[in-house]
Design brief:
single chain; 130 residues; mainly alpha; 6 helices; globular; Tti2; TTI2 protein
């Protein structure tokens, strides 16, 4: 937050760190994933002019996270799962806003082919966001 728009100087490295943390579960409390989603949200808010060019990579990582959180049946409590899904959805909504609706277009095919209720609900929230 303190860097503001100056975060764009570090986007390439920060993107690698974010992707790395999103890929791996860090235990039942998922503290690292929750924190990195908060970091991603803050980054999108401050560096929004540079996010459309990073959209393919971030969209893929967030969709993978939604799927992983839904399918992983480890010791993670349901409120933590819900928090992960919510934060990932918020990041998708922000990406959609800064890409002028491009995320919604890309997600249309995914939403129609997805049969998992929780994932569909997240995608529906993105589609209905204004």
């Amino acid at each position: 937050s303190r860097l503001g728009i100056l975060i764009v100087r570090h986007l390439k490295r920060l993107e690698r760190v974010i992707l790395g943390y999103l890929e791996v579960s860090d235990g039942p409390k998922e503290e690292a994933r929750l924190a990195i989603l908060e970091t991603l949200q803050c980054t999108i808010e401050h560096a929004w002019p540079r996010m459309p060019c990073r959209l393919p990579v971030l969209l893929k990582a967030l969709l993978r996270l939604l799927w992983d959180v839904h399918t992983e049946r480890g010791p993670t409590p349901e409120p933590i799962r819900a928090a992960l899904l919510h934060r990932a959805t918020q990041c998708l909504i922000l990406l959609d806003h800064c890409s002028q609706g491009h995320v919604k277009v890309l997600l249309q095919g995914v939403q129609s082919s997805c049969e998992e209720k929780q994932v569909r609900e997240c995608l529906r929230k993105v589609q209905e966001s204004t």
